[in-house]
Every structure is written in C-alpha cells, then in structure tokens.
Structures
1.
Amino acid sequence: MRRLLAATETVAALFLLLIALVTAVNVVLRGMFSIQLPDWFDGSRMLQGIALFWGFALATYYGSHICVDVLWEHVSRERQRWIDIGATTLTLLFLAPLAWMVWIKVGGTGTQGTMDLRLPLKWFYAVSAAGATMAAVLCVLRLVRLLQRADDELLPVSVHEIETGRA
C-alpha cells in the first residue's frame, strides 16, 4: 500500500515540477530572447490536469479535502468513523463515473492535438484518466479500511479531543 501511495505522490509531484519548469523556461526565453516555447500554454494546461487528478487521488485516500467539520469535531470517535464512511461512499459515487467519463473522453479525442506541435491530446488525457481511476481505487481502499475499523491513521484527531486531553 505504501508503494502505491508513494508512486501516486511521485506522479503528482513530477507533473507539478514539469509545469513549473515549462513556465519558468518560457518566462526566461520570452524575457531574454523574445521567443517562447511552442505549445507552452496547451502543455502546461494538460500537465495541470494530470497533476490535479493524481493529487485528487491522494486527497481522497488521506481524507484531506477542504471540508468544514462543524459536526464531526463534536461527536464521538465512532460517529466520526460513520460520518467518514458516508462521505467516502458519496465521494466514490462521484469518482467512479468521473473516471469512466474521462476514459470515454480519451476514446473520443480522435486526432486532436496541441496548437503548435500537434502533440496528440489523447496521451495527456490518458494519463489524466489513469489519475481519475487511481482516485476511485484509493477511495475504495479508504472505504474498506474505514469499514474494517483500520482507521487510526485515517481519522485525524479532532480539535475537541486535543483540548479535552482525549487525544
């Protein structure tokens, strides 16, 4: 499991690094030589989509989405677990069709390509679709762990538990 999570983190980080490199190189070339990288804009958009899908997979597994825990922080550990099970199930009901539809998009791109170099969009979309699929898979794994009560690392300590010394 750790290898799968490490690989997912690496993929997301590499694509974020590529976005930063493409943008930095383009700025330097434009500023110093008045030229720009071909397809830097299309390329950075495609790379950003890939990084987002792979990052979303990690946020789903770790349960670290942006959320408001008004109720969650004030209930018992068992009820927190059930709230997380419900939220994770709802997330899975969103991610599974999303992953499917992104793969449908991959199949429907045909010969579309980037503006300058005509790089096929299919490859960018396929890596994004793999990230969406990984998000659904990690969501299932999180749900299984929550249902098996292997949730010590999945349920963060609430502020209320810290304040009352129950943590």
Note: Confidence is low (pLDDT under 50) at residues 157-162.
2.
Amino acid sequence: MEKKTRIIAFANNKGGSGKTTSCANIGYSLAAMGKKVLLIDGDMQLNLSLSYFTEDEVLEMAASEKNLYHAIRKQDDLTDYVIHTPYENLDLIPSSMLMSGMEYELFTKWQREFILKGCLKNIKAANTYDYILIDAPPTLGGWVMNILCASDYVIMPVEASPWGLFGVANMFEFLEDVRRINENLELLGIAITKVDARKNYYKQTCETLRSADNVHVFDNIIRVDSEVEWAQDDSKPILVHKAKARSAGEYMELAKEIDRTWQ
C-alpha cells in the first residue's frame, strides 16, 4: 500500500479537555508503533512543545525565527522548521507566544484560511510522515479555521465532567462551517478523557455523545491519572516517564484504535 500522510487536528473550543495531552501522547504512541509522526504546536501556550523539551529549550525555540509563528507570517515552506525530538520517528514544529497575535496577522492575508495548508504542502506531498498531528488552541477563530482547512481529520477530546460537554454543539457547528471550504474534513472521533468511572457524569457524557448522529466515539477512554502531570513536569510523554502507568497503556490502545481506521 502506498504511504499517505494523514493530517489530524486535535481541537476543542473548551479548555481543559485534555487536547494537548492527548495529541502529545497519541503522537508518541504512534511513533513507538513504528509510524513516522510530525507534531505541530499551534497554541501560544507552548504546551505541546513542553511535552518533549524543557522550559528553557522551548523558550529558546519560541524566541528564535524557527517556529510556527514566523513560518505562517512569512508563508514559508514548513520543511525547514522541523525539529527532531529525543525520540525515534517523532519530529516537532514548535510554537511561539507570538501566536497570540496570529488572528491579526491573518486578517489582511489573501486566502487566509489556506495559509497553513500551503505551508504544509511540500511536507505532505513528500509522504515522509504517516501522521501529522496538530494541536489547535481552545478557540473558534480564524487560526483554528486555518488548522482545520489544512487537516484531513479532527479528533475532539472531551472531558468526562459536568462541564465537559459545554461548547460541543458550538464545535460541531464550527466544523460544518469549515466543511464549506474544506469539504473533505472528517470528524475522526471523540476521545473521552479525564474519566473517573466512579462518577455518574462519566456515564452521562458517554451516553450523550454516543447518541449523537454520525459521531464516532472511540472505544478506548483515558482515565484520570496523576502520573500524566508528573510526566508533563518531566517534559516527557507518559510512556517514557512511566511505561507501566495506567494512562500509558490507555494512550497506546487509543493510538492503535486510531491507526486501525485505515487498515
């Protein structure tokens, strides 16, 4: 089978959904499975970059000219902005705190919804990577529109909490708006995160999401696990920080479920 690069955005307009954590750890899990993965940090908070590099290293990247903000601003080919992580099969395009001004930067650009797609054109065409995973910020503005116009698929992490479903309807409406200009965009599925199976609202979250029309909910869930926070503090994926942690196994199983989509 011919290798094809698939671009997947991790997006949810609600903060605290586990979006960045899922992107970072699913990315590492896919790489550990032998897939070539490129991660793109699309958020000014730099958390995806901090999942793999120390704070000093990330701030140095953010202050340099070789980050996503400068590439988008110049409409450059992103090939020259790729940084190797310490792990095999796994690369990163870091972010910058200047991403906070991205909406303004995009406002005056011609065909602004497609700038990231253009910057990724050569990387996607080269088929070097099996997966390009993009961490989108928790907003519904022009920059997230850009990310979704550059993507083939969306994974929406949703927190299993009383407020976890808040804004999901807005996200669905936004995806429909994006499909008017990127008609091939698909919602690959919803990943239920931060699960405490003892709480009733976990079951309510699952039932509500699974009852939605034409929405796939992944079978594998991610439970609450304090080891995830320790791994983040250590600037490492959970599988590297503590391979036997419950969440390490859960992210690996979720990555396998995602990868089976095309098998």
Note: The longest helix spans residues 19-32.
3.
Amino acid sequence: MVMTDTVIEQLRAVYPDYAPYRVSVDEYIRFREQGFLAVRGLIPQHDVQMLVDHTDNILAGRESFPNVPAPSPDLTPMERLQYYLRVHMLHRVLPLHERFMLHPRTIDVLEALIGPDVLALQTMLFFKGPGQPGQGYHQDAYYIPTLPDTLCGAWLAVDRADEDNGCLWFTVGSQHEPIYPDWDGQTKNGDTVLGDIEPIANASNVDVTKNELTRVAARYAGREIKVEADPGDVVFFAGHVLHRSHGNHTAARSRRAFVGHYCNARSAVPWNHGDPYEGEFANHLHILARGTTHLPYAQPRFGTPCAANIPAMRARPVTDKPMSMMSDGSGIMLLTAHADEADHH
C-alpha cells in the first residue's frame, strides 16, 4: 500500500521521526531463506529511549502495571530486577505499549513480509536481568495458531543483546518444518494432518536433554545463528522457525526487549491471551494495523493511528477495470481488462 501524504502526516503527529521503510528484494529473500530478518536501526533512538525510561521507572518502583502486583519497596535494586522477567499484553492497558505494537516502521516491514493486510495480536515486555534464564527451542506458531498460518514475530532490542546477556538464536532451515504438537496436555495445537509426524515434549524447556525439539534442531547441525542486536534493531521471524535464547550471564547488564506478534489480517485467529483463550476465534479482539480484511477486528484502545481507525490506511490501489488472464485467440494467456460490465465479478 502506498500511503498518502495525509496519512504520513497523521503518523508523524504521533511518531515525529517517522519515515516509511521500504523492504528490499534481498531482505524479502533472506527472510524466507533463513526464517528471520534483522532490520538494523529500524526504530529511531528517540522512540527507543521512551521504552528505556519506561522500564527504568518500573524497576525503580515509579511505575507499575495495571492488575500486576508491584514488588515490595523493601527490595534491593537487584531483587527488584529479578522480580520481573516478562509481562504480556500491556498494549491493552498502557498507551505506550499500544504505540509500539502499532509502530509504523514495524508495520512497514510486516506489510511486505506477511501483508499487505496486517493484524496485531500480542505484545510482551522482556526484562531478562542478570542471572535470569533464557527460553529453549520453540516454535511461536504452536502457541499462537493462525489459519491460514501467517504468524510473524517482531523483536525490538531495547538494550544491546549479545551472547553474554542472552540474544536470540535461530535454526536456519527449520522455518520449513511443520508445527510439532507437544504432549503438554494444555493445547491441541500443532500439525495433525501429516501422517508420520511425531509429537514432542517440553518445548521451550532450556534443558536440551528434556526439550524434544532438540532432535528436530539436530537435522540442521551447524546452521544455528546467533542474532546480536543494538537498541532500535528489530528482528522479524516466522512462526515455524526454531529459536531460543540463553540466560543472561552478565553481572549487571539487562537484556530488555519489546516483542509483538502479528499475522495476515485475512487469517482467522483461534487465540487470545485472556478470555476467550484457546480454540475460540478472537479476531474481533485484535487490532487491524494496516490494510483491510473481511474478518472482524478491534479498535486501538488509546487511539493510536492505524488502519482500524484511519480509513485511508485501509485503501488499496486498484485498476480502473477488473482484469483476468484470458486467451488472445492463439492459446496464449494474457492479463486483459474485462470488456463487458457483466464480467466484472
């Protein structure tokens, strides 16, 4: 979608540093070849600083989350840092999180990778202080199913993320794997159509001897890539790709990150964090970030500009006349405008 000057000005009223980001052909190919794409410096530093200040205030006890008990004021700074690991879905209660979930530079990339229609589903705020654990091999589309399957994560680095404090690792090639059902007894997610798929156990467990996705990752030996990131970098990753992170082994460095999950807005989403939860279609609870859809969607609670509340962002350029592949009389098919109005269906 080519946004009009008016729409861009509306976005700049909320995101002063906004300039549209155009995904290159090389980036598009790398996303599909590797299962992830790191876009360096995508989010301006002024915006990243808002998240730095926000999380600093939380850890200092100056801000708290609605419906989440604040840590005791008697805790030491290190104990306060250990109190938090990650918090889900704060875009439903905090304007700042809605703003970052719908950040137009993030949506610019998603429009090219999974769009043009983009539905915003989930946010997570990671703190990952010194000594906090990572997360073992997992596939995000197991936890958040979409039909058709179009899930994509967007991981924004708030701090420098590297091997020492627990950056992301991706198993290149595994984006072509099916979603493995897990014998966790909690969900029925995962591929059940393939006749020889073997369920696994303990996805996300950091212990590779217990996490049975380890045997899937072993097929791609030598192809796991660490993705170090600086503040403002955003890592986009497909819903099937195996990924993990290790613990934060530093003495004083945090690894804060803001993560969103999205899908094509024409996918049905039998998922919601809350009530309804698993198995009930909940598109009407998720926000249309860009484009259009025949399915229901939610308005942003804090008025952040996006396709849900700006009609011009739902428009898509079309030709003056409908066109179809038609024969030119010699058996060659050509894209041809319909001659008769009766054919315009």
Note: The chain has eight helices and 13 strands.
4.
Amino acid sequence: MAKKLTLNLITPEKQLISNLQVDMVILPALLGEMGVLPGHIKTIVQLGMGSMRYKQDGKEEEFAVLGGFVEVLNDVVNVFAEGADLADEIDEEAEKQKIKAAKESLSRKDADIDFELAEIEIKQALARMKVKKRHM
C-alpha cells in the first residue's frame, strides 16, 4: 500500500478536516504554491489567501483558505487557517456583495473607516470567488 499523508484543517471556528488520509496536499504558501507529498521534510510555512487542494484516491477536493500557518511533520499536515470554505459551499453572490460594501466604505473616505480591514475583506472575497469559479 502506498504511503499517505494525514491531513487536518482547523479554523478558529471549527475543525473542518480531521485525520483524513490523502495522497497529496497543495497549499497557497505566502510566497507561492507549495505541494506536500509523503516523506516531505519537517516545515512550518505561513499561508496566503487562495486554494488549498488535496488529492485522495484520484479525486480532488478544494477549499479557499484565508491565511494562517501549515505544519508538516512525520507525514501529518496540520493546516491552521484563519478561515476556510469548501469550494462547493461558497456563495459567489454573497462574496460580490462583500466586495461592493467594502469598496463603498473605502470610497466614502470617512475618518472612522478601517482601510486595512476593508482591503483584507476584498482580498478574502476575491480568493473565495477564484476558488468557486474553478468549480463552475
């Protein structure tokens, strides 16, 4: 039997994946996409916003992850994401509304607007939409 990885995906709200046996994990590392196969060296990497995919018995599943960290240790991949959404569960229209609202708040230029937070909300919504479009 071929060697497998054990995948865990944890967000502050809940654990989305627990001890899932997979063949490969592809992650949006901060400096570019990173693939993990069995036997990968021990590492800790900061995640960017984007697509996290895993392959299991010839099938691929995809999540939009919104930053965090990943730890690879002894064929266990622990993904500690600030947020994550399964591609098939992302509501594209809701993401468009989030972008619209954030852009409107930025255009008002009110003193009480948190510009950094509005920009992050736009980036997160765009990351989710990009993952969703790959599944349409």
Note: Strands lie at 5-10, 15-22, 24-29, 32-36, 43-56, 59-73, 76-81, 84-86.
